[in-house]
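Example record

The entry below shows one chain as it appears in the dataset: sequence first, then structure tokens.
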Amino acid sequence: MSQPEFKHMFSPRTTNILLAASVVILLATLLVRFLTTAPQEWVLVSMGIGVFLFLLVAFDQPAEMK
């Protein structure tokens, strides 16, 4: 059986932008979490958004063919 052809949802440029945005959001929320007295609910929401963007990019990548 052959594997079905994988089709990317995002262009490489969009993938790079999403990946960069997720890393920036996650680093910024870590800094805010440990260096300020910001409400923890907002920090967790921001981290959730960063993780969501990261997973969006991760699941758009093709599986390794063996």
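Notes for this example: The radius of gyration is 16 Å. DSSP finds two helices and no strands in the chain.
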